[in-house]
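Could someone model nicotinamide-adenine-dinucleotide with this protein?
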Amino acid sequence: MTTKQLAPISVDQAVAVVTGGANGIGKGIARALVSRGAKVVIADIEADRIDETVAELSSEGTVSGWQTDVSDIDSFEALADHVFDTHGSCSLLFNNAGVGSGGGGKAWESEPNDWKWCFGVNVFGTANGVMAFVPRMLESGQPGHVINTSSGDGGFAPVPMAQVYAASKAAVSCYTEALHYQLLDESDVMGASVFYPSGGMMNTGLFNAARNRPKELARVRNPDRRSAMSFEELKDRLEKAGRDVKVADLDELGNFVVDSVEKRQYIIARDIDDTIDLLRRRADAIEQFDVPPVHQMGI
Ligand SMILES: NC(=O)c1ccc[n+]([C@@H]2O[C@H](COP(=O)([O-])OP(=O)(O)OC[C@H]3O[C@@H](n4cnc5c(N)ncnc54)[C@H](O)[C@@H]3O)[C@@H](O)[C@H]2O)c1
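Reply:
Sure, complex below.
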C-alpha cells in the first residue's frame, strides 16, 4: 500500500460536516471550525439540540444543522444530498456521533440489542458516512479528509468492563487505517485520521447516551440495568481512588483537533504517554504469547 505525505488542508472556507456536533466533543469541533471560517453542517439525531447549537455558534460564522440518524444509510445519504446541493462540496467529514455500551454488565449479560445499538451508531455510523460522502469527495478531485472519532477504550486497549463499546471503537480504529491507505492509493489529496478524545475527563452527554436509544433496540431481558455512571459519579470515584482528575475543556479540544487535521496528522490524541507505555507493554506480552495488559480504571 502507498505511504505518502499529504499537503496540509485549509479549513478556512472548507465545507465541514460534523456528526454528533450538537453536543459535547463534536460541538467543540464545530465551534473551532466555524471560528476559522469553515462552513459547518451539524448532523445530529437531536433536533432541539441542533437548533440550540446552531443558534449559539451562528454569531461566530456560517453554520447550519440537519437532523440525521447516522446508523441509517438512507438518512446519511439524505444528509450528503443536502450538503452537496447546498454547498456544492464537502472537504471535511467528522464521523463523531457515538453512544456507549448500552446497559453495562458482564459480556454474557449484554443483550443483542446492546450490540445492535452501539455498533449501529459507532461502527455503521462511521461506515455509512464514508459510503455516503467519500465517492463524491473523491470525484470532486479537491483536497478532503475524513476524521473518525474512536476512543482510547478499544482503539488502543479495552477497559474490560466496557466490552461492547470497546469492541466498537477497536472496529473504528482498524477501519480508519484501512480507509486511509485506500484513500492514499486512490488519490493524492484525500486521507483520513483517527481521533482519540484525550487530555482529561470529558463532561459530555455520553454518560447519558441512552437518551437517544431507539425503542425498538431497547433492552429486553434486563431492562432496568443502569446503562452508565454519571460524569460526577465517575469523577468522584476516581478522586477517591487517589487519581489526579483533570477535566478537559471541550473548546480547547476542538481547536486541538482542527489544528491536527490541518496538518493531516493521522493520530489525533494528546497526553497519551501512559497509553504509549501500555502499548509497549501490550507488544511485549504479545511477543510472549501472553494476554496483553489493559486500561485499569482503578475504581
Ligand atoms: N466523552 C468521552 O469521555 C469520550 C471518550 C472517548 C471517545 N468519545 C467519543 O466521542 C464522540 C462524541 O461523544 P461525546 O462524549 O461528545 O458524547 P455526546 O453524547 O455529548 O455527543 C454525542 C452526539 O452524538 C449524537 N448521536 C447519538 N446517536 C446518534 C445517531 N444515531 N445519529 C446521529 N447522532 C447521534 C448525540 O445526539 C450527541 O450529540 C463519541 O464517538 C464518543 O464515543 C468520548
